[in-house]
Amino acid sequence: MTDLTIIGGGLAGSEAAWQAAQQGLRVLLYEMRPGTQTGAHQTSLLGELVCSNSLGSNLPDRASGLLKAELRCLGSMLLECAEATAVPAGGALAVDRIRFAELVTNKISQHPNISVIRQEVSEIPDTPVIIASGPLTSEKLGAQIQTLSGEEQLFFFDAIAPIVTADSINMQVAYRASRYDKGKQDQGDYINCPFNKEEYTAFVKALLDAEKIELRAFEESIKSGVKAGAHHFFEGCLPVEIIAERGEKALAFGPMRPVGLNNPHSGKRPYAVLQLRQDNLAGTLYNLVGFQTNLKFAEQKRVFKMIPGLENAVFARYGQMHRNTFISSPRLLLKTLQFQQRVDLFFAGQITGVEGYVGNIATGLLAGLNAARLLQERALLEPPPTTMLGALCHYITHADLADFQPMKANFGILPALDTNTRMNKRQRAGAYSERALRDIKAYLESVV
Asked: Are 294 and 319 contacting, i.e. CB atoms less than 8 angstroms apart?
């Protein structure tokens, strides 16, 4: 007998399954891979990270770091897996993708209250269920969600950055350093490829002139009448060539900003820098930070080899784009992540409009706990809006649909601080974090 069905074995679905099972529920977790592939995933592992291996900052005065601190208070299993498989990344939490997903898969598969079913779900069960099918929800399930909600799905295009082999990086040109030395004391956690002005200008021109992959296949799969246009990119994960179109210096002030990364070979600060972040524990793979792209593979090889230090780069994976979908959460969901018209149906993860790995984990955790509390006839959790998790849930359920776009953890969605004290940006962030952690701990002590 099953108490709860969860659709989707990504970050949100895996965390939801674990939390519900820990509360004593018997859980069926459906994951359609490997029988049905998404076009973006590379393995059949649960919790596979697709776009990047970084879960964002670990620092307490950063929004992502605050959300992680809240998840530690809530007992997140996936955050524990991430910390157990972490790779060097300065002040950020980055993981070995494969080891992380293997650990998540093993924990879920070995839990006595969880049964994993490798099968595509084409109909929404009429029993308690969490839909955590993610941004790459299958066409059949997407149609079911659309019928249930009566709303057209919104969508945007998301992109993946390339990965190169470590031994193909020219360390006579590139150098190790973390921005402002926030990494290993001896060498820094990132590999940096420095540009002078002439190299940068030539690179940007080549980037703008390069051939892109046509998005027609995606466009044809989108029904007419959808709110967003066919080239609606998510601002938080723009293709590098789209950033370059915004002005010649857009990259130098964006993902290629050189601040805090002086070149030890020359003793000077470069005009621009491409950073490479370790992608596996063995240190054999590095991804191009902030270099999501939709260039054709041959063009990626040609243009990205213009990057100083990558002239002989061997690409273990080229960048690519995929279409992400999310529902009209402000019209459909409660802050408990319940569907408004059906209290035993929950949504979690990126399909709700929460963006970022940690946000997906957090909403999966909340949905799993709330599904258990519903079945156990206990009051459902609604984290205070002064917490990052509470603020994210408030945003996706109260945003104006006219400009509703996926939202990452950020201090801008928190209520203003109740103080007249003048503070700089760092002090204000610290105050937000202090208040949030105080409030989440007090809230958890008050609920039973």
From this structure: yes
Tokens in use for 288? 């191009």
Q: Which of 102, 111, 120, 136 is nearest to 360 (CA)?
A: 136
Question: Check: CATH 3.90.1800.10 for 4-153+327-446?
Answer: no
Residues of the chain under the 50 pLDDT cut: 185-186, 217-231
Beta bridge partners of 263: 268
State phi, psi for 340 to the nearest 5 degrees: -60, -35
Four-CA torsion 159, 165, 170, 176, nearest 10 degrees: 70
Beta strands in 250-371 (DSSP E): 272-278, 285-288, 315-317, 320-326, 338-339, 342-347
Sorted by sequence, the CB contacts under 8 Å of residue 317 that are 6+ apart come out as: 42, 160, 162, 163
> Helix (H, G, I), strand (E, B), or coil: what is residue 15?
helix
Query: Distances in Å between the alpha carbon of 252 and those of 57, 263, 268, 365?
Result: 21, 16, 16, 38
Helices (H), 127-175: 139-149
Question: Per residue in 201-256, pLDDT tens?
Answer: 999 999 999 998 876 544 444 333 333 333 456 666 688 998 999 999 999 999 99
| SS3 label, residue 351 | helix
Give the integer Cα–Cα distance in Å for 448 and 435. 22
Residues in contact with 167: Cβ distance below 8 Å, sequence separation at least 6, in sequence order: 284, 314
Nearest to 50 by CA among 194, 165, 158, 166: 158
Residues 6 or more apart whose CB falls under 8 angstroms from that of 448 comprise 378, 379
In CATH, which of 2.40.30, 2.60.40, 3.40.1260, 3.40.50 is domain 159-323? 2.40.30
